[in-house]
Each structure stands twice: as C-alpha cells, then as structure tokens.
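Worked example 3 (structure in, sequence out).
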C-alpha cells in the first residue's frame, strides 16, 4: 500500500489529463505552426484545432496520455516535469502520426467522435500530414542523441507491429503469441518509450529507466487488450468509433484470436464467419456472441488485471515519491479500466 504524501495533493485522472494537455499544448501548437500552411492545416484538423472547413475551433482531440507518462516519469526520478516537455511533445506527435496512417489502412472514417483526416481531405494529403508529424517529433528532440535513438527504435517497432497487424487479416494461422507480440510492438512500445524517455530526460538511473520502461510496456499491453475489447463491445459514445468496428473489418484482435484458439465448439463457427469476410451487422453481432461463448472476453479481462498488477510491481521498485507513484498508478488505471 502506497503511503500518501499529505504535503501535496494527489491529482485524480481528470486533473492529470488537464495538466498534461496544458503543459504540452503550447509547444505542440508551436511545432505544428512551423509546418508549411498547406500541411499544417491538415495536422490542425487532425488534432481538433480546425473544423472540416478550416475554421479554428477551441478543442484538443487527444487525451495526451503518452505525454503524461513522460512528464510523470521525469518526476518519478526526482526531476521537474518541465525536463520532459520536449520528449512529451515528441511522443504525442509520433502517436498521432500512427493514428493518421492507421485510419487510412483500416479504412476508419471516425476518430475522436469526428470524421478522420483522410475521409475529409483525402488519402494522399493525410499520408503527408502523418509524415509531417513524424518529422516534427524528431525535431523536438534533435539535440538529445540517446532520446533520438530510443525514439527511432520505438518507431521501427511500431511499424513492425502495424505491418504484422495488416498481415494478420490475410492469415488463417495467427496464434495468440503472434497477436501479443504484435501488440507489444504496435502499442506497448510507444507507451514504454514515453515513460523511459521521460525518465532519461529527468536524469534517471539506468535501473529506474528500465523499470519505468517495463511499467509502460506492461500497461501498454493491457491497454491493447482493453482497446480490443472495446473494438467489439465498446460504446461508440465513449470510443468515438462505430460499434464492433474491428469485427466488421475482419481484424484478428486479441479476443478474436483467443476465441479461435480456444477449442470450444463456438470457435469453429467463428472461424467460418471470418473465412467469409466482410461481416454484416448481423454477422458481427453473431461473432461477438461466439467470442464470448468461447470464454475469450473473460480471459482478456483477466489478462488485463494480471498485466496491471505486474506493472505496479515494476513501478513500486522505482523509488518515486508516494505522490508521483500514486499518480502513475492513476494513469495506468486510466489506460486499463476504460468502459470496463
């Protein structure tokens, strides 16, 4: 049990997210403003700063969870959060670069309760806007050699994971280990890097940086399990995506692969649906029922809890103050308890 440091209030999740956005938003906007106007307007639309006609709006599209991890990780190793602002901006840009490209590859027309960038402005411009965000991420930490190397390796892992995710749609032999490895690269790697980059920027020891990296990785894998559950059973009002979007697109997500490999009678019927491809609304609803009958929904929820507990053990070994440790726990809970 973590002792509470009464000298400083422990912020709840909503306050932490507001703080992260407030810290990251000004330098992020400044970075985007450095882009050529034609590309910058597209990036601003993706972030929710402009509407589809190009008029400015006062919104922020993302939660800024990855920047929050970076800022808190710097504090966890004894530095001020400001030490990690540049890496916080970098990981937010990389994350959004990946979202823009993912939406194109998956054909998703809705993101954050509004039309996706490519569906409004076209595939080509959206690809270029994603590329522009990636260049800004490198510029944000260009003077940090270790950070740049870590970010580069992380992006390579992210791309490898996305490649595997796309390939799974054409494969009939995807194993649960394959799926978990893909998730560790596509999703967990950037969350791990967010925490490690923050700790590095804060001057953390090698041991502390490694612990925080593992914490981020475990939380990231749990996050993917939750995200995949929401892709089937999530409320569109919460997720910002159509109901059962992953099933309609035939994605081999963790619950689907767990169900297909369960050996339950329902698994064969689920495999038949997936072989037909192009699931209708009725087929997607049937598939969701079959996945649940295979026990995959409960298994995934149990796996989330196990990963969360492992992550907290890594965090406890870092030696952060009680307040910062509790706020990192709150952040981990935010990522792994969405709409459950």
């Amino acid at each position: 049990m973590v002792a509470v440091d009464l000298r400083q209030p422990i912020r709840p999740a909503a306050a932490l997210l507001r703080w992260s956005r407030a810290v990251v938003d000004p330098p992020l906007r400044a970075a985007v403003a450095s882009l050529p106007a034609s590309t910058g307007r597209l990036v601003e639309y993706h972030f929710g700063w402009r509407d589809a006609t190009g008029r400015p709006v006062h919104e922020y599209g993302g939660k800024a969870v990855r920047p929050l991890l970076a800022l808190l990780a710097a504090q966890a190793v004894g530095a001020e959060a400001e030490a990690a602002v540049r890496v916080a901006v970098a990981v937010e840009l990389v994350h959004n670069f990946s979202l823009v490209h993912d939406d194109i590859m998956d054909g998703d027309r809705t993101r954050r309760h509004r039309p996706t960038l490519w569906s409004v402005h076209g595939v080509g411009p959206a690809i270029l806007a994603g590329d522009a965000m990636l260049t800004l991420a490198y510029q944000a930490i260009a003077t940090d050699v270790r950070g740049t190397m870590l970010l580069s390796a992380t992006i390579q892992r992210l791309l490898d994971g996305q490649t595997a995710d796309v390939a799974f749609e054409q494969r009939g032999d995807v194993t649960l280990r394959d799926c978990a490895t893909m998730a560790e690269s596509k999703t967990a790697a950037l969350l791990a890097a967010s925490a490690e980059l923050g700790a590095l920027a804060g001057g953390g020891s090698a041991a502390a940086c490694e612990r925080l990296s593992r914490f981020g990785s475990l939380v990231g894998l749990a996050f993917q399990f939750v995200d995949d559950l929401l892709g089937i059973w999530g409320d569109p009002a919460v997720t910002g995506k159509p109901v059962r979007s992953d099933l309609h697109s035939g994605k081999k997500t963790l619950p689907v692969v767990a169900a297909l490999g369960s050996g339950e009678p329902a698994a064969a019927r689920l495999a038949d649906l997936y072989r037909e491809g192009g699931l209708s609304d009725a087929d997607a609803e049937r598939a969701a029922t079959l996945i649940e009958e295979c026990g995959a929904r409960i298994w995934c929820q149990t796996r989330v809890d196990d990963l969360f507990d492992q992550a907290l053990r890594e965090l406890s070994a870092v030696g952060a103050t009680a307040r910062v440790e509790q706020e990192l726990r709150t952040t981990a809970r935010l990522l792994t308890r969405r709409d459950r």
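Notes: Residues 13-336 form a domain with the Farnesyl Diphosphate Synthase fold (CATH 1.10.600.10). The radius of gyration is 20 Å.
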